[in-house]
Amino acid sequence: MGGLTILGIETSCDETAAAVVQRRADGSGEILSDVVLSQLDLHAAFGGVVPELAARSHVSVLDRLVREALAESGVALDGIDAIAVTSGPGLIGGLMVGLMTSKAIAMATGKPFIGVNHLEGHALTARLTDNVAFPYLLLLVSGGHTQIVLVKGVGDYERWGTTIDDALGEAFDKTAKLLSLGYPGGPAVEQAALAGTPGRFRLPVPMRKDPRLDFSFSGLKTAVRQMAEAEAPLSHQTIADLCLAFQTSVTASLDDRIAMALDRFAQRFGTGSKPALVVAGGVAANRAIRATLEARSESAGFRFIAPPLNLCTDNAAMIAWAGAERMAAGLPFDALDLAPRSRWPLDQEATALIGHGRRGAKA
Ligand code: KG4
Ligand code: ZN
What mean pLDDT do residues 268-280 have? Predict the structure, then answer.
């Protein structure tokens, strides 16, 4: 198949986004436009995403963002080969807004329509940015998901591990909240930890050496709460020390789980071709976590790939790209009666674990 130009739309959580992406016949890609409107300010007062507010906000801005994405790309609707939209997992109200808009565009233009799994968008981004070859290992760490996924091909995934309680971003957010830091909590905790005293507080490393590749973060959050209560009233220094202890412990847990995953990957596929560990999701912005994962990848013979931050967090370029990859792989288009799915595991075989880290529906 020749080159493909895809319009992508993303409304599964609290970002409204539209983008136009091109995939060339050789498999390389280019982002022609990438417009994202974050609803952060809208939800900040509530300390989390309010689904009804999110859906209403998507309705009011999506038309404009699609027009902007097309205008910026320099491609007219005529020049688009297909419309790709996130059809799950996510908040149903938001998903419906994106689906209705993209179905209307597909119907009016007669173009093919592709429903994309949001997680597949995250999973395939590294092929857009770095042309990564299959198979590779993905660590997705966001506000809604914490997963280790083997990416074998387009539409072909094995989930190796997931969280049995909170997602990692969620754990950062809850820790920030109990220490009276702002929302979203990840950047605030990272910032505070810079001034922390190493070793003042020690927290356990969840799941260390556990033969399953899963994660658990809620016990840690409880431990931080108990320490904070014992130290109240909290000085700035104590808050910084607790943030550092929390960040150190989650980083060690990720390191332990990823070391095991890389080992398992190496046993199955070898490392002769220098395979990749790819990280995605908002938590991948954390410098301590990045540095640790990078060092671990290198010592295990892997390349470490972290897409630029704006492509690690939610965006529509990844949805357009996943649509292009699916179309190039000859996967079927979707019918215009496609329904949104609030839950939609990438790996259909994987069993749901208790809680499995879904706060509302963020990914
Ligand atoms: O991928 P993302 O932008 O949104 C979804 O969850 O879909 O991820 C947001 C999450 C939030 O929980 C936020 O606290 C966390 O990523 N995060 C961080 C950092 N920046 C964002 N966590 C730790 N350190 C950071 N620097
Ligand atoms: Zn996401």
Answer: 97
Helix (H, G, I), strand (E, B) or coil at 10: strand
Q: In the CATH scheme, what is the code of domain 4-128+313-328?
A: 3.30.420.40
Which amino acid makes up residue 75? V
Ligand 1 pocket check: which of 119, 283, 315, 362 to mutate, most ligand atoms within 8 Å of Cβ?
283
172 CA → ligand 1 middle, Å: 8
- Segment 193-217 shows an average pLDDT of 97
* Cβ(142) – ligand 1 distance below 6 Å: yes
Q: 178-187: per-residue pLDDT in tens? A: 999 988 899 9
* pLDDT at residue 351 in the model: 61
CA atoms within 13 A on the CB side of 204: 12
Q: How do residues 226-235 score in pLDDT, each as one tens digit? A: 999 999 999 9
Tokens 């820790």 identify what position? 175
Asked if residue 144 has its Cβ within 6 Å of ligand 1, the reply is yes
Q: Mind listing the pLDDT tens digit for each residue in 61-95?
A: 999 999 999 999 999 999 999 999 999 999 999 99
Global pTM value: 0.92
Q: Could you state, in order of their start, the residue ranges of all structural domains in the chain?
A: 4-128+313-328, 133-309
What CATH number labels 133-309? Answer: 3.30.420.40
Ligand with smallest separation from the Cα of 141: 1
Burial class (CB in 10 A: 0-12, 13-18, 19+), 330: exposed
